[in-house]
Amino acid sequence: MPLISPLPHFTALKAKQRTLRDGFHENLSLRVHRALSWLARAEACGDDDDARFIFLWIAFNTGYAEECGETMPNAARSLFESYFDKIVRLDTERRIYDAIWARFAGPIRLLLENKYVYQPFWSHHNQLPGFADWEDRFATAKRRLSQALARQDTGVVLITLFDRLYILRNQLVHGGATWNSGVNRAQVRDGAAILAFLIPLFVDLMMDNPDTAWGKAHYPVVE
User: Where in the sequence is the domain holding 123, given as residue range(s)?
Assistant: First the structure.
């Protein structure tokens, strides 16, 4: 197995940002500054996985979010796809792929096979029409993921993974879970751990590619 480089953490990323920030476009500068602030807060959470997950998700938001209009359908997923397309294309050393499969293959597989972070399951449970076949959809999604893994298609894996993490995010942020609950604790723990190694990698890749158009930061600073 090839040697895997250490994953970046807040201290190293902050030192790198201080060295490079004078060459950043203002949009990238604001995104990275905000992301690092939330990464630092997440690292201070200790074993509070609920808080750590939420702070890490905010850090992720600083990287991908753009103004797209309140009524745009599936806006978040469209932005995910655009952001991951850039990140994967710029990841010429395959750091994301290697980190996923060398370090966190187990937790990722468990999360992707967990029906409690699969929206059609909840739609059926809440008696919405058109989701009685959620189990068939779930099986199909898992087959497609297996095919993506066989192709080493990191982009598809990331989109599928963050589709599930988004459901977990909704459960926490919209009051669909109890803090530190014993119910479904594994998915919160694994979700926080997955974000904790992916988001710093994303920020690091953004700093390595300052000439890429990252888009206007959501809610820019206005004097």
Answer: 10-66+75-208
Residue 147 vs residues 142, 144, 157: alpha-carbon distances, Å = 9, 5, 10
Asked whether residue 217 is assigned to any structural domain, the reply reads no
pLDDT, tens digit (0-9, with 9 covering 90-100), for 85-135 = 999 999 999 999 888 877 777 788 888 888 999 899 999 999 999 999 999
| φ, ψ (nearest 5 deg) of residue 57 | -65, -40
Residue 215, C-beta contacts closer than 8 angstroms, at least 6 positions apart: 27, 66
Residue 16 lies in a domain: yes
Residues whose CB is less than 8 angstroms from the CB of residue 35 and which lie 6 or more positions away in sequence, other chains included: 59, 60, 62, 63, 199, 203
| pLDDT at position 6 over 70 | no
Does residue 220 lie within any of the structural domains?
no
What is the pTM for the complete model shown? 0.90
Establish if 80 belongs to a structural domain.
Answer: yes
